[in-house]
Amino acid sequence: MKKFLLMALCVPALSNLSWAQTADKCGYNFIHAAAIKRNPNFDAEHATMTQEAIKNASLTGAKLTTTTTLTVPVVFHIVLDSDYLKLMDPATISDRVNSQIAVLNEDYNKGNADSTKIPTVFKTRYGNPAIRFGLAKVDPHGNPTPGWEVIVTTKNGFELNNDDPGANAKHVDSGGADAWDVTKYINVWITNFLVNGSPSTTIGLTIMPSYTVGAGAYPKDEMGVMLRYDAWGRRSSSTENFFANIDQGRTLTHEMGHYFEMIHIWGDDGGQCPGSGGTDDGMADTPPQADATYGCPTFPVTDACSKSVDTGIMFMNYMDYTNDACMYMFTNDQANAMHGELLPTGESYSLTQHPELLAVPDVPAISTSNLSIYPNPTTGKINLTFAPAPKDLEAISVVNILGQKVWEKSINQQQISIINIDLSGMTKGIYFVECQYSKGKEVRKILLQ
User: Which of 25, 107, 378, 389 shows its CA 20 to 30 Å from the CA of 438?
Assistant: First the structure.
């Protein structure tokens, strides 16, 4: 139940490219410690404050009261310095974003193919949160957006062990990216984490809505999810850089669970059992569990809290710590609770009220029949030819995959038939030629080999 929300809000730290067998480096520890420093009574006050929300979300096992799928806009802010951007490989950004949205929509709509692995004893508990995630198509200023942006920062990472863990990644003034209106978008920051100035192996943490209310709370414009640069998206090739066993997009599935007020399946109580001083996750259909599960165990698995339970623990639940390929379900109660967060009584209801953000805005149609680009691919020099020469061409620019202009020329509506561009010396990869007309823009992709 929500009175236990003061527990871990992120996936665990990793060590030597494998799951660490402790949770003491989990990003939640930094989040919670900072809240307590602000307000020593944070735990008690937060628990009292959320009692009404507990009732509204019906976290006691009631079934979904609606089958309506609710859709929310998502934006990705990729905040990395040039070195970490290269490690992630900027050419994979679009594929990672699209694959990550696909994973979310599968996992939150009972569409994941690996659900066939759910043990028979748990199949009737397999829940459907009925939440869809759409890439934002309109930014806060009303302009078209692909649903992601890249900010090349001078920071080599963002500190977790301070009074506001990771917050610098969420503000332009400190080298990060400002959140888009958190009442309209779910913000996801992709970055690198530091602890005491050194790279951290934490791979995700979340500031959930309930953590932005009351004394000791976090600023609302810091609400959202943070992910490590190599722990998001679904692998499509063996050459892509992913953290070991974290390459199926399940880190964000897990973190979105936290965003919708879920806690870890074992209750985050340090290995204690319910009834013996321990807590529970508040979900009636998740078996008692002592602590986190790592790796990819074989069913069934029992522990100190489940020895007398025939089913064993539900280590394949998205809110455990198993490898990406070994987690593949939410339960009915978890689904009900998360769906409830998007209903009128829920904390995230406003996210469902802006369908216009998911629709591509109208833009003037630009004829492309009079523009030719050759050679493409190119080793450096390209020629743009217009036949006939346009009368309303204002400027031409070449933009790299990060959205940075690497070449530009003002035309000022002169009737020009051919433009020569030399990209020799530029980094090989994908670029975009943008022709700005008085009534719109035309964009063509080129490949520099």
Answer: 378
Pick the more confident residue, 379 or 400: 379
- What are the backbone angles phi and psi of residue 113, rounded to the nearest 5°? -60, -30
The model's pLDDT over 132-148, given as tens digits with 9 standing for 90+, comes to: 999 998 899 888 888 99
- In the sheet where 198-199 sits, what is the strand order? 158-159, 193-195, 198-199
pLDDT at 432 over 60: yes
| CA nearest to 196, candidates 161, 156, 228, 155 | 161
Strands 381-386 and 371-374: antiparallel
Whether 344 and 397 map to the same domain: the answer is: no
Count Cα atoms within 13 angstroms, Cβ side, for 64: 22
Burial of residue 271 (number of CB atoms within 10 Å: 0-12, 13-18, 19+): middle
pLDDT in tens, 209-258: 988 987 778 999 999 999 999 999 999 999 999 999 999 999 999 999 99
375 and 353 part of one domain: no
Separation CA 258–CA 5 (nearest Å): 9
